[in-house]
Task: structure prediction
Amino acid sequence: MGTTSKALSLLELFSRATPEIGLSEIARRAGINKATAHRLLGELAAHGFVEQVGPARSYRLGPAFLRLAALREASVPMRDAVRGVLRSLSDVTGETAHMSVLHGSVLDTIAYSYASAHGTQVRMEDAEKLLLHATSSGLAVLAWSAPDFVERVLAGPLVKRTPDTLTDPGEIRARLAPIRARGFAVSVGGFEADVHSHAVPIFDSASAPMGALAVAAPSARMCPDLAALIQGELLEKGARLTRLLGGFAPASFPAPQAA
Amino acid sequence: MGTTSKALSLLELFSRATPEIGLSEIARRAGINKATAHRLLGELAAHGFVEQVGPARSYRLGPAFLRLAALREASVPMRDAVRGVLRSLSDVTGETAHMSVLHGSVLDTIAYSYASAHGTQVRMEDAEKLLLHATSSGLAVLAWSAPDFVERVLAGPLVKRTPDTLTDPGEIRARLAPIRARGFAVSVGGFEADVHSHAVPIFDSASAPMGALAVAAPSARMCPDLAALIQGELLEKGARLTRLLGGFAPASFPAPQAA
DNA sequence: CCGGGCGGTTCATTATTTGAACCAAAGGTT
DNA sequence: AACCTTTGGTTCAAATAATGAACCGCCCGG
Result:
């Protein structure tokens, strides 16, 4: 791994749960020397990627991301399209909708939308990184991924997040064909207990799955009617989002109008 | 300069005008070897900071900024506050409002808002980086900056962007005291010809100027009434924004209610 | 069919990164 | 108040990683 990668990986340490971290803690979590961490953070800070704050001189993500995210949006409008789709999904289904994009072998949640209807909602604040084998979003992505990528994921350690998490490679592999046939994936309590979620893949311009659109509901509220509603909405909105982002569903993807 | 800084500075090459750049072009503009650029871009790409696109394999800013900008917003809510203030500023004044933050010795424009009123508007798309000596925003920041920082800026090369750009260190120095007394800075055609702009500084939690809030109007439309309106609005909205961002105006800052 | 541009790769040379040991300062505990 | 631990930050010789000229194969226009 290059020096630059080490520096960039320091940025991965920040999360909603830990938005500010001290020097020693960063070095410890990243598994690098304190002096090295200090120098790398200095370089990141010079470019506005991190900044120091407070009397403890803790580090947090810097202001450069405002500018760069705006620039990214200018060249690849995505946020607005995603937001609109999520809003309408959560409105219609009355449940939490979220979108995540593939990053290495995990899914990063980039946006979510809560419904105003119910008191209980599946919350997404603490689910920034989704595991491919443990979520409906992950299964949706795997189902349309290249076989060697799937095998690499299934070969790696499959963390058992909950008692219901699928960790048997064979079982997961067997689930992918039905997902491909129906166009969406389902997970019941695989990531968080008592959460029933549906997901459809979103494709890029090369027809490769680049992420997933999902609706998560409390298991207690799931029923055939709600499931049918969510599935129909996801297939329709997923197809629309893929188009909005300039992507194409592969020819093998089931036609959305097939009810 | 460290290796990491070189990699990060590649990100500065992207702009609204050039959102996608090829490998050779990147190496040329950054003044580094093609092989080096290739390796650095590879590391950036592995973390989602850039991505390759199209048959030409050009590079553009990557999707990681969506996630990181969202995280930055979660720890330092800024964008929403800025947006709201800008919107109301451009509505009330009928002119273009913009916000920029200090980054080294330039100002990065992070957001702007156009008014719906006039056909002619000062456009901000091509003004991502503002020079401190040539803009009202820059003068507003300089007026409340530490003397050694001011001297360092005035010592450096002062680019003459237009015939009206101030480039005499002595003259600029002399302008800062009146700015401090009134609370806002003015620039007439110093950055773009025929643009008349006003700006107030925005302060951070240490009462240091972290950026500026500005209103830019075509010179032809400027008159005493409009100037008075803009000045009053800027002082009020600037004070509010400083507070919204968790900052504090220094004791020396003129009270906004002093009409 | 020939340049000349492109993206990407190789490998010996070189300069940069690295980390143990070291500060001074700031709590916590006895 | 003496002590221990941990904090952010610094130093410098040793070791590792970055570097760039030359090199592909490719595609496009002449």
User: Anything to note?
Assistant: The mean pLDDT of chain B is 91. The first strand of chain B starts at residue 50 and ends at 53. Residues 3, 32-36, 39 of chain B lie near DNA strand D (CB under 10 Å from a C1').
